[in-house]
Amino acid sequence: MFCHLRPMRRLCLEKIFPHWFPYSRALSGAEAVNALRPFYFAVHPDFFGQHPIEREVNENSLKRLSVYLENLQKPGFKSLKPTQLTFYVRETDQSSSDGQEPFSTSGFRAVKFTLHTRDLLSTVLYILNSCSLSVEHIQSLNTNVHTQPLKEAKRMPDRPIKWNKSYYSFTGFKDPDEDLEQVWRMETTLTSWLDNNGKSAVKKLKNSLPLRKELDRLKDELSHQLQLSDIRWQRSWGIAHRCSQLHSLGRLAQQNLETLKKAKGCTVIFTDRSGMSAVGHVMLGTMDVHHHWTKLFERLPSYFDLQRKLMLLEDQISYLLGGIQVVYIEELQPVLTLEEYYSLLDVFYNRLLKNRILFHPRSLRGLQMILNSDRYAPSLHELGHFNIPTLCDPANLQWFILTKAQQARENMKRKEELKVIENELIQESTKKFSLEKLYKEPSISSIQMVDCCKRLLEQSLPYLHGMHLCVSHFYSVMQDGDLCIPWNWKNGEAVK
């Protein structure tokens, strides 16, 4: 009596996906990951090395998607809250911009969608369709597992049944589309988001406190034992994961202490692969076994020799370019090993020798440049450094640097001034809200951080007391209780 059909605001999956969708069995977790390979290939952060903002957005959206997929696989789950995701999708053989935002000149486009699916298969299909990626490979995956021929399967109706609101009022059942409709009707504001998520963040933070103390203890002990400059992590792994990595390094130190002491004075970074980074940090790949780590520490003396050669090469390039300083900015450049960066510098240096550019000696002192392998035209960054392509035309390079030198100096001066203001506002905000920690993601500029902090200081936000607050590009409560808010957060009443 309560059932009727009515137009739906949400597209029916059976309509937007192939005709075989109604007959497909559920996917396993491993099959879902395999089916999403084209998607992962199109959005993987490692392909966005020259675009730090897009890289950070994709990395954080992938974390949230991973949590969503894990929850779908938990036995007895009832309903998940709608999850809004944003991805920057690279142009690939499979991708098409039909009906989507066109690709930028950098070869990617932004895709936003809201997940409110109830099983892995519909989730996978919805993601692929939202990104204009093919779903044909999923058909072959499903046709091998039907328990009965398709022709014998019962045909599902073209339009799904939609229950009237009175049905949920009468039975007390939760309307599964209620949360989604609320997302459509309302625009998230800082105060409303903190009201909805503050208690959850406090609980997670409280639960993580013992592990946070353990992490600090392990880090201090290993830094002292190995005489390290610092221990860092390239990715935003959870506290438990970081403790596990430090325990592994601690066990290795017990077995090969003298070998590990070769890293004296270095910074150790846990990352995706082992080696030495372009700036001389010891990179420990989290998927590598102790044997690989030991070999790396044994090779450190040869890495130090290469590092000295690299620094000499940077000085030689600087001399040829009027004293401009060659720098490597971790936050803005792709992660390169020492060998990869040396090779990049060597190619550029040899091109300069063949096409000698005439600069007045030391005329460009105080300026900075970074080398890029995937650009063909030089540019000036808002932070004041030059982006120089390895294979750029020397004549064009000379003209560009000379005409932009004054603007580069002004940009660098403004950067230093902004940095001072930024640090002052961080301290003031930390004090006003009694924050345990206030920090930002690497992709957040000083201008964005200053704007965010200025507007925060105008608010009264009791939920922030004692919290860890991260300024990012999105709203999220991290697994250890850190609150992430977008730098351009909105406030006021929700917009209906």
TrEMBL record:
Protein name: T cell activation inhibitor, mitochondrial
DUF4461 domain mapped to chain residues: 188-490
Pfam families: DUF4460, DUF4461
Gene: TCAIM
Cellular component GO terms, alphabetical: mitochondrion
Organism: Aotus nancymaae
Location of the DUF4460 domain: 24-133
InterPro entries: DUF4460, DUF4461, TCAIM
